[in-house]
Amino acid sequence: MNVNQMKEKINSREYDFLREDDRLKNRIILLTTGGSYAYGTNIATDEHVSDFDLRGIYLNSPEEILTMDCHEKPVENHELDVTIYPLAQIVKLLINANPNTIELLGTKEEHLFIITEEGCMLRDNANLFLSKRAYASFGGYAIQQLRRLENALARDNYPQKEKEKHILGSIEKQMMTFVDRYKPVTKEQLRLYIDKSDKIDLEEEIFIDINLKHYPLRDLKNMYDEMSQVLRDYAKLNHRNKKKDSLHLLKHAMHLIRLLIMGAEILEGKGINTYREKDRELLLDIRNGRYSYEEIFEMVDKYEKEFEYAKENSVLPDNPDYKRINELVMEINRRVVSAAI
By the 8 A CB rule, do 283 and 254 touch? Predict the structure, then answer.
């Protein structure tokens, strides 16, 4: 599907909600591609699945702004794969370099189906949102993709003791992302390890030792939930369709590499490049199964090292420029309120 065909679809009755929904009507400031078309990794079968994804940003209403009671949930149409974020929500996500939203500020110009002055203001000032937080956000998303890939392969090929070691490794990788969300813990305070199991169906299993004082209960609960999710994800693989799953695994592998490359670029100060022009061929080859899993994991090692190096030598500040971001948001909101008076 080319850009003109996308525009025709957007202007069709099927997408009338973009023009008729009270939250969106005359308030969308940016509408662009998402998913495979945004990255340049779309293939012929994508057109039979969901055509294309749309992502965007809309302005909060004057009433919301003046009463400080702003919507902070996106308008979504799951059938058409459309997600439009309110400004009040997306700014918070952009500050944390959330990969699913930061990419809206770096899509191709020809993929901008709606772009107002306010939308241009956000894209022109995308650098304000970039900081070393990209390491945790892009690294966290990459770890999720890696975990899904490794877990599926481990389920098929590893004996129980090796599987348990693999699961522990996945949990430890997930814990690497905790630093930006929870109060830090040392290995002495929270220790995970493998030992012999008393359970009939397990030779060995993962154990935990906790030695915490005056630690936020909510942080502990949320960390535990994330660790437990790794176990739940792994258990779900018992019921997977291997033939169908191989397509999904290759897609996970492609996004894993994409996230590491894109994250490293951001940390190196190269900005947000959503459309993967230079590595498009590599990503498509991964998705199309032209590399073995062994070769893919060798790539992962290579790009992880580059990602780590980019973080250690990043030219970005530790945190985004809150002052200038606030000034930008105030100017946009001032325009909204002034237009209503």
Answer: yes
Question: Could you tell me if 78 and 203 lie in one domain?
Answer: no
Helix (H) or strand (E) holding 192: strand 190-196
Number of domains in the chain: 2
SS (H, E, C) 195-206: EECCCCCCCEEE
104 lies in the same domain as 252: no
Phi and psi at residue 188, to the nearest 5°: -75, -30
The enclosing H or E element of 311 equals helix 293-312
Dihedral sign, Cα of residue 61, residue 63, residue 68, residue 69: negative
Tally of CB atoms within 10 A around 23: 18
Coil vs helix vs strand at 131: coil
Q: Residue 67: which domain range?
A: 3-128+320-340
Q: How far apart are CA 116 and CA 28, in angstroms?
A: 8
pLDDT in tens, 202-253: 899 999 999 999 999 999 999 999 999 888 877 776 555 554 467 778 888 9
**For 112-133, what is each residue's pLDDT tens digit?**
999 999 999 999 999 999 999 9
Nearest to 185 by CA among 224, 217, 211: 211
CATH label of the domain that carries residue 76: 3.30.460
CA 208 distance to own-chain centroid: 29
Q: Which DSSP letter does residue 317 get?
A: -
| Unique residue bearing structure tokens 């250690």 | 312
DSSP H or E run through 64: helix 62-67
Closest CA to 160 of 200, 193, 115: 200
* Residue type at position 338: S
Integer Cα distance of 45 and 217 in angstroms: 47
| Cα–Cα distance measured from residue 99 to residue 305, given in angstroms and rounded to the nearest whole number | 20
